[in-house]
Amino acid sequence: MMIQLSDAGKRFNRDWIFRHLNYTFESGKSYAITGSNGSGKSTLLQAIASSMNMSEGKITYSSTDTQIQEANFYQYISIAAPYVELIEEMSAKELLHFHSSFKSLLQQVSIDGIIHAIGLEKAADKQIRYYSSGMKQRVKLAQAIFSDAPVLLLDEPCTNLDANGYALYHELINDYCHNKLIIVSSNDENEMDFCKERISIMDYK
Description:
Elements: E1 2-12, E2 15-26, E3 30-34, H1 41-48, E4 56-63, E5 66-68, E6 77-80, H2 92-100, H3 111-117, H4 133-145, E7 151-155, H5 163-176, E8 181-185, H6 189-192, E9 197-200
Parallel strand pairs: 3-8, 3-9, 6-7, 7-8
Antiparallel strand pairs: 1-2, 1-4, 4-5
Helix pairs in contact: 4-5
């Protein structure tokens, strides 16, 4: 999988969030988008996800030399972000079953195995509305990381997690994401310390 940005830019009204961005993302590598709060990290991540149109330039998606239409790129990504909501009337088990009906999960682990991996066995059948914020974040990470998708997008992935949650996050990345293209949007070094490539959005203002 390859994602290529060519002279990409996004603005709201007269304010440029980023501009003249040329960059190539490739499978098997991990990238961090860095910058201060409000600098536009999430905007860039959403543009990469094709959920937001750019104001100038272009973005192309390809897999094994075959170009992917922008409208179809959602099939190739999974995402965990503060603005991605959970269906709180469902239990974690029901949500993962529902999610798997339109985006396949990794074959090597069952839904019960996923629940065990994120430490929510005792709450598996409880409605998500009764979960703590940290438990909800574990479900968000599970939904994204265990999706059978080649691109993993993570926006502030450890929001509401304690020290054990941070450790779990790194364990899941290490165990299940070897061949994925990972892009992390964050200004927390502990969320992106495994990323070999760094992109400062401040370089593209």
